[in-house]
Amino acid sequence: MRPANIVTAIADILAGVAISGYCINVSLNNVTLDGILPVICLCLATIGLYGGGVVFNDVFDASLDSVERPERPIPSGLIANSQAVILGSYLLLVGILAAFSVGGLTGFPGWLAIGVAASALVYDKWGKHHHFLGPFNMGLCRGLNLLLGISIVPDALASWWWMGFIPIAYIAAVTNISRGEVHGGSVKSLRLTACCYAAVYIAMAVLAFLHHHIWTALPFIILFACMINIPLFRAMKNPVGPNIGKAVKGGIIALIAMNAAWVAAFDTLSFALVVLLLLPVSMVLGKMFAVT
Which residues cross the membrane (predicted)? Predict the structure, then answer.
């Protein structure tokens, strides 16, 4: 289920909630159960969707992993393929139902959750094998996940739907280099990813400036840039598999810093710090469980 990655998906939801303006009149001192319950349900939704998606990734990759990554749960015999299918299906179902509990049958959250689940399964089975569509497909899962958080305020989607393209570009850039984790990658591919990274944090700075929160968001943006660029530049100097793997892992874990920066740009410093607290949780889980 990639627990460390699931924490980053929760951060996506919290960033989307901040972008929607849902918490604009809420402080940590006046949080109510009625107010926080939809946020909890959307976090549960993304846990199920992300967890189910990566379980099915291992299901579809079982034969390849038996050669390249025999330590993974299915090829190692830790869990049967049929058991993994049941687990993945259950997680996706929980994710979709949790999203529908927020907006009802006619609301955006449930249908966005279906879109995330469908995009994840398409990627797992077919998308990853396409040079261009694969990274875009993987990014689409993250873009829809951010929109899932924004959909907590349905009217906000009309204003901020286009922000889904930012995580699409970012995750496409991470996925672009992930193919080199086993056999190594190319410097050209790494440079392309670096350009995409730069476009993302420049866009973050511009939006923070337009919302008059540039000085609040800037430390988070700098942290995000450092987390993704340091391992990436090391991989550029020596693009062998282990260095590529560290660059990919850094790109995934840094999503929490990225989302904290969005919160700082659209909401308050206190909520941004709450999101940033997920970073050490994800880093600890990243040492205990596989990230890629």
Answer: 6-24, 36-56, 90-123, 159-178, 190-210, 216-235, 247-265, 271-290
Start-to-end Cα distance in the chain: 11
Cβ neighbours of residue 217 under 8 Å, at least 6 residues apart?
A: 204, 205, 208, 261, 264, 265, 272
* Number of neighbours of residue 191 by Cβ within 10 angstroms: 12
Range of the domain at 170: 3-288
Around Cβ 238, how many Cβ atoms within 10 Å?
11
- Return the pLDDT at 181: 65
Rounded Cα distance between 37 and 19, Å, is 18
Specify the pTM: 0.90
CA distance 140 to 113: 12
Task: State the DSSP string of 13-30.
Answer: HHHHHHHHTTTTT--TTS
CATH code of the domain in which 223 resides: 1.10.357.140
Average pLDDT of every residue of the chain: 90
* Token representation of residue 228: 């993704």
